[in-house]
Amino acid sequence: MYKLFVAFLIFISAVSCSKDNAKEICAEIDFSTESSVNASELLDVSFVKLETNDNCVLGGVSQCCKIDTCILILDNMMSRALYLFSDNGRFIRQIGVRGNGPCEYVRPFSFSVNEENHTLSVIDIGAQKVLVYNLSDFQCLYEKKLPFYSDDMIQLSATDYVWYNKTKSEISDSYVFVTDDSFKVKKDFLPIDFGSGYSLGNGRKLSLLDGVISFYTPFEPIVYRMEGDSLRTAYQFRFGEETLPPIDYLRKLSENNKNYIPELLKSKYVAYYSFYETDNALCVPYYKNEKMFYGFYDKQKKKSYNFSQERIQADLQIGAFSSPVSTVDTHFFVSLLRPGLMLQQKDEGHKLDDRLELLIKSSNEEDNPILLIYSMKN
Question: Distances in Å between the alpha carbon of 331 and those of 47, 218, 373?
Fold first, then answer.
């Protein structure tokens, strides 16, 4: 009965994207045609070069956030550790210790900062546990074993967590569920309609902005807001004539746990999309027709913009552009620029932003990434 009630709430939220309904504020956003405006006229851009030394060799940045005047960086692929840098890129320290002991991590995969409780919670998918640190000194307070698999979480309060789930489990068969601090499920949302061991795009489907949690599922062009025990539709996307793949098509492609991704990338469908939100803008990377595109939406002007990857790279004079890894300070998107690739682009004669040129002059191919920090112009 409860699942029927949740399904009813979802149905109501999905169909009530209407200007006539004061409670539902839903923007229908179309990324159909490439924009004529130059991306440099739309976006303010700056760069932070992360220091490289023997104590912080990063394979990449999978998540970051601003804490006071510092930047917290997670590399969940190569170094598999958390680091603290100053806001000008100077290395400060590693947070936590790699290992199999108490309050040590094997593979930290994502984190959540709760300013109210002044804590940092980290999911370690290698040891299937959550570690909680004090934000003041980054000392580990405690760890808790997870009775389910999840690689994405937001700590709502001292007692409540929101989790994203890719596959059905004994705990929940929904994409998103809320638990208390003993991991007992309190409510869940959006039953899983397609589960697979393979995935595309950004693994993080949960986001927090100004105390409000938003989330989306991989193959539905809708972003939901959590409001207590219910959902409402915040944004609904269109990608021109192309659509996200039907669930029946995905099930057929992935029969017998087959890797469906190569066929999907070559298909007529939008293979995947991601969603990032700041206080005044959205960034929606998506893949169709075997090319990457980046949709932007100005929340104040209620206007959308659309760029191919090649176009935005040329407009911003950055050589290479990739999807955001995070947002910071509620106002900025953060993507990565790799010095090795920038040096190659420069050698090939590509024009680079003057500020980026200066950073590249003092870089080598093995250096840590440069943070590309950008926001919508007012």
Answer: 15, 25, 10
